[in-house]
Design a protein that fits this description.
alpha+beta, Phosphorylase Kinase, domain 1, Aminoglycoside 3'-phosphotransferase, Chain: A, domain 2, five-stranded antiparallel sheet, two-stranded antiparallel sheet, globular
Amino acid sequence: MQIFPTQYSVLLASAIGDFIEQQYGFAKTDCRLLIHNVGDTYILSNKIDRYVFKIYRDAHRSRDEINAEIELLNVLYEGGAKVARPLVDLSGAFIQSFNAAEGIRYGVLFAYAHGSVHQDLSIQDLEAVGREMALIHNISSSVELSWPRKAYSIDTMIVHPLERIKPDFKNMEREYHYLVQISAQVMEKIRSFDLSKFNYGYCHYDFLPKNFHFKDDGSITFFDFDFAGKGHLVNDLASFYAHFFLQVLSNKITQEEADKDFGVFIAAYRSVRPLSDEELSAIPYFGFAWWIFYFGFHHDNFEDWSNFFYHPRFIKERVSWIKKWADWYIFK
């Protein structure tokens, strides 16, 4: 019987474990599914170490884009950045192929980022993030990958996402009008900066605490470069500031505490890499763009990931968050 057209399959964890043992020469490796959203992430463990195996979907990342992610991570790792590097199999290949129900899917094995997430970042944590992000930027701003990755611009961060999400605002025209109106002001402000003097390179674009682990000795490892793309590096600082915004929004810290903590991070960043005052002042505007970009991401992946939460209540709440961001940091 012919396989019925399939959009998003889930590959059997035990079979992935057997495949990894054969392909990488591992022994007695346990495998379980860790995350199922826009792609699938499996956690593997044996007596030697733990690993992460990520299986992409062509609808989300092409093979060329995966090659670019691998290339960037290798450049960063070889340059001394603290990142979870991709691992080669016995034949020296980074990418594995699977003939899934929906077609070919590609997978990459990564070293495990030992440690844990710290949501409440200490002074030492903040300094480590600042120094290590700056080191990543030192490297990512000086390389041109041979494989393509998306570019982060006003169009890709704001204009195009706004166009795509418009149908989702049925009976919420006031909320959509607000986003369009404020976005126009933000874009005008971004264009007023001398962007030619802003640092530029490959951004991680998701520098939230969920994407780096701290070990007990204070060392840090960054991972999940799935959104890596070319753009102004202030985008990464803006995505990190979103963490502090959410902490204030949930009443876990005050705005004064957030600004103090972010100042520690900025000082550590500047101890490794220059950051102009104009770039610093641009963070609220690039942060606004980050929120709009993620609105578009939720829309784009509705059928495969966001359908269980991307509904009118979520949309209205997210607009209210964006309004608070604008009121607190842009129009203060």
